[in-house]
Design goal:
Distance between the termini: 38 Å
Radius of gyration: 21 Å
Number of helices: 17
Largest sheet: none
CATH topology of the largest domain: Growth Hormone, Chain: A
Order of helices and strands: HHHHHHHHHHHHHHHHH
Structural class: mainly alpha
Number of domains: 3
Oligomer: single chain
CATH superfamily of the largest domain: MFS general substrate transporter like domains
Number of strands: 0
């Protein structure tokens, strides 16, 4: 007689009961997004020098994230409509096509269009992976599954700068995108082989187009603040973008077809407090990975490879801390959520002093605080939100919404960091003065956002929320 399946939340339990193929595919899907972001951050100074696109530095990330937001926001309903197998394979092919366009494009605009397509395809892949986690893994396994996702980011943080730095130093950055195009095709093949053929989807499932339109408009408005050229217009565009995102949340709570689970627009609910904390913490963190490599190369004389590894310490810290605390239960998850939000906020504060001071050691410490804070808290915030939602469609919407919130925060953070950097002279070229100014103001401008993120984390773990968890 065969032994009964283990249901103890162990690693054997994670891959048991036929979950191994899905687990492997989730790892592959997360990898292309994680590695893409780490490699691109390292090679962007080379891309800017080659294509003359320093004024659009932040758009390389914001364009990718805009596509990712649109894709991630619709992934839950598209997975229900077309089935995970077909949808994931098609998304991976679109990602590969975007990589090929960025690799072959002759100017900054074709490069940026390619980045948007990469964002769409990669965002759908990651979104479908999030849906798979929410639907196919029970609550007891979520911390370990999310810890694995974090570990993949850690591997990407080690290999990404190495890959990007080698190709950048060889003046062959285009080949990076050809490499990712091949990986996109491989993920499409894996999805087609590993996911069950019986999942054909439901043609009656609908997509929340009005909310998606508001998200696109809001992120685009904030992104255009990069190019506004003065403080007043940049501020108005940023405020307008934030207003459009707030309007999306308001509309979604009253729509028949929703992007967010019930109660997501209220800070008094677990989903609302959790999504707010995730969004705000992500916004505050984006300047580190986008502008960190360029500032280090200019002010400290580091190579692309060296700068990439310094910044990659953030992701490595996220990985290590996430794996260290994944086994915690009882009162500890709530404590980790609170502690992690505070530690990440301190990382933003330290960055404001470390970058302009030309201290590589200080930047490393800031990155360890920033990434370590996310590692302590992120998996438990995700678990708390998903555990509060009923099984079925509501949980699928919630799982996809977590990707939407994270990617929207990343896009807003990238665009806002770009706007601030350009206002202090980055658009005029990478000089000692512009790098030093960006090193201060990119982080100083988001300190209030980080503080609000800490408040959201404490609200998520408050007594009322704990009672409903």
């Amino acid at each position: 007689m065969s032994a009964a399946p283990r249901a103890d939340g162990s690693w054997a339990d994670v891959v048991g009961e036929g979950r191994l193929p899905r687990f492997v595919l989730i790892c592959l899907g997360v990898w292309i997004s994680a590695a893409d972001s780490m490699v691109t951050a390292t090679i962007m100074p080379s891309v800017g020098a080659d294509l003359g696109g320093y004024a659009y530095f932040g758009w390389a990330t914001a364009g990718f994230l805009l596509g990712s937001v649109m894709a991630g926001a619709s992934s839950g309903l598209l997975a229900l409509r077309f089935g995970l197998r077909r949808a994931t394979a098609a998304a991976a092919i679109l990602y590969a096509l975007g990589c090929a366009l960025s690799a072959a494009g002759p100017d900054i605009w074709s490069f940026l269009i390619g980045r948007v397509l990469q964002g769409l395809g990669g965002g759908w892949v990651v979104g479908f992976c999030s849906v798979a986690i929410g639907l196919m893994f029970p609550d007891r396994l979520l911390p370990r599954v999310y810890a694995t996702v974090t570990a993949i980011w850690g591997v990407a943080s080690l290999l990404g700068p190495l890959i990007g730095g080698i190709f950048a130093d060889l003046d062959a950055w285009r080949w990076v995108f050809w490499l990712f195009a091949i990986q996109g095709v491989a993920v499409a093949w894996a999805a087609y082989v590993m996911l069950p053929r019986s999942d054909q989807g439901d043609a009656k499932a609908k997509v929340a187009w009005p909310q998606l339109g508001l998200i696109a408009a809001g992120v685009t408005a904030i992104g255009l603040a990069d190019l506004a050229g003065d403080f007043v217009r940049s501020g108005l565009l940023t405020l307008g973008g934030v207003g459009l995102l707030a309007a999306m949340v308001w509309l979604d709570g009253r729509a028949a077809v929703r992007l967010l689970p019930h109660g997501a627009g209220s800070l008094a609910s677990i989903p609302g407090a959790g999504f707010a904390a995730m969004f705000l913490m992500t916004v505050a963190s984006m300047g580190f990975s986008i502008y960190g490599p360029a500032i280090l190369q200019k002010l400290n004389g580091l190579s692309a490879l060296e700068a990439g590894y310094v910044v990659a310490g953030e992701a490595a810290a996220w990985t290590v801390m996430g794996l260290m605390v994944a086994h915690l239960t009882g009162p500890w998850p709530a404590r980790m959520i609170r502690l992690g939000s505070i530690v990440a906020g301190l990382g933003v504060l330290l960055s404001m002093f470390a970058f302009p001071a030309h201290t590589v050691a200080g930047v490393i410490v800031a990155g360890l605080f920033l990434g370590g804070g996310f590692g302590l808290s992120w998996a438990f915030m995700s678990q708390r939100v998903l555990s509060s939602l009923p099984e079925g469609e509501e949980r699928a919407i919630g799982a996809a919404a977590m990707t939407t919130v994270r990617l929207t925060g990343s896009a807003v953070g990238a665009a806002a960091a770009g706007a601030v950097a350009n206002l202090v002279g980055f658009s005029g070229g990478l000089t000692d003065e512009s790098a030093r100014a960006a090193g201060v103001w990119v982080f100083a401008s988001v300190l209030p956002v980080a503080a609000l993120g800490v408040m959201g984390a404490f609200r998520l773990t408050g007594k009322a929320s704990a009672a409903r968890a």
